[in-house]
Amino acid sequence: MTEKAQKLIEGKKIMITGGTGSFGNAAVAALLKSKPEKVIIFSRDEKKQFEMGNKYNDDRLKFIIGDIREKDSVERAAYGVDFIFHAAALKQVPNCEFFPIEAIKTNVLGTHNVIEAAVKNQVERVVVLSTDKAVYPINVMGMTKALMEKIMIAVSREKRGKTVFCGTRYGNVMFTRGSVIPYFIELMEQGKSLKITNKNMTRFMMSLPESMDLVLYALAHGGNGDIYVKKAPAATIENLAQAMIEIFNFKVGFEEIGVRPGEKMHESLISIEESYRTEDCGYYYKISPEVPEMDYKFYYFKGSEKRIFPNGYTSANTNILSKEEVKRLLLSMGEIQNELKKLKIKTNFNNEK
Predict the structure, then answer these.
(1) pLDDT for residue 306
(2) Using CA of residue 180, residue 185, residue 186, residue 190, what is the dihedral sign?
(3) Angle at CA of residue 341, ends 336 and 347, nearest 5°
(4) Minimal CA–CA distance to 131: which of 146, 112, 114?
(5) Class of domain 3-171+208-231+269-312
(6) How many of the other CB atoms lie within 10 Å of CB of 32?
(7) Left, alpha or beta for 189 (phi > 0: left; psi -120 to 50: alpha)?
(8) Which of 277, 305, 326, 339 has the smallest number of Cβ neighbours within 10 A?
(9) CA–CA separation, 23 vs 34, rounded Å?
């Protein structure tokens, strides 16, 4: 966490929507170290809230049961809040494909409720969490996340009240709920072959702490309508599966099952069109909104000739990790080390570094 972000958080009230998820847990662990006045977890799952309260046992944590689909519920929760991290979403691609209206209710209309609640309660800053699937979306989850971004940008142009709205966009976050690495471990524990869709498919690789750092950077530096992307490596699904097999001494191997509906071979974090308004910020890229003000003439008659990526920023043209590099990355994760300890598997981790 940067010094600027730490100073920004100190003494503030921060609300995390969908706060009992993987990101919420990482956020709470980081935020409680920075002396906030209060961290509010807003979510629907009372059991997870109870477990989270026991885990951290900190009086600065406040839990509110509610649903972002319910406007009144969000407005009450946002009263007196300084910052909002909007992480609540339907994220599973198959579920969104089968139940698209539900994805719209949560990811689109729910986001609008959060944004309107922030404006009404004069929240200082809101960071919405998006995904690489929002770029050139081919599935419902990506489409609804793309609309979420557009809603955030549209409201940021209006400048109603004092709230600053910005966003982050990232790809596969390793070892989060529903991601492929825990799924691979579950299959190995059952003695079943690892199921991969296409061995040449690529995905960005990012850890939970890195996703938290990205959100905090956006909180500290984001202007109205900005979206931030972390520079991240990628890996082929084959190299990821092979690395897991070797780390866990798994003998069954993997099998290809074919690309599923709604899946891309490669993901994009920045589109070709967005590259004209992308700025290099060191560890991150900043994508400025197409039109920062409510100026229709600007929208229709002014463009840009400079761009940072001729083909966008994708999991196919970023740094592609080799199998050995993926192994080192995985072995650096505490979650993987914990799984190895549970299974009493010894590795030459120190020599792998």
Answers:
(1) 66
(2) positive
(3) 75
(4) 146
(5) alpha beta
(6) 15
(7) alpha
(8) 305
(9) 17
In the predicted model, is pLDDT for residue 294 greater than 80?
A: no
Is the separation of the CB atoms in 167 and 149 below 8 Å?
yes
pLDDT range class, residue 349, cuts 50, 70, 90: very low
pLDDT of residue 178: 73
Q: 206, 172 in Cβ contact below 8 A?
A: yes
Determine the Cα–Cα distance for residues 64 and 76; give it in Å rounded to an integer: 10
Give the pLDDT confidence score for residue 175 in this predicted structure: 83
Supply the angle between the helices 46-56 and 22-31 in degrees, to the nearest 10.
30
Using one digit for the tens of pLDDT, what is the confidence trace for 98-128? 999 999 999 999 999 999 999 999 999 999 9
Dist CA 19 CA 42 (whole Å): 6
By the 8 A CB rule, do 22 and 176 touch?
yes
Q: Which residues carry out catalysis?
A: 133
Q: Which of 209, 246, 250 is nearest to 230 (CA)?
A: 209
Query: Which of these, 6, 11, 75, lies nearest to 42 by C-alpha position?
Result: 75
Query: For the chain, what are the domain ranges?
Result: 3-171+208-231+269-312
Distances (CA, A) of 275 to 257, 288, 319, 334: 34, 10, 18, 35
Neighbours of 189 (CB within 10 A): 13
Residue 152 has pLDDT above 80, yes or no: yes
Q: What is the pLDDT of residues 202-240, one digit of tens each?
A: 999 999 899 999 999 999 999 999 999 999 999 999 999
Instruction: Return the structure tokens found at 90.
Output: 């339907």
For the chain, the 3-state helix, strand and coil shares in percent, each to the nearest 5, are 45, 20, 35
d(CA 245, CA 188): 9
Query: What pLDDT score does 351 carry?
Result: 42
- Longest distance between any two alpha carbons in the chain, whole Å: 65
- Look at phi and psi of residue 92 and say left if phi exceeds 0, alpha if psi is from -120 to 50, else beta: beta
SS3 state of residue 320? strand
Q: 292-300 long-range contacts, Cβ below 8 Å, gap at least 24? A: 292/157, 292/224, 292/225, 293/157, 294/157, 294/158
Give the SS3 label for residue 8. Answer: helix
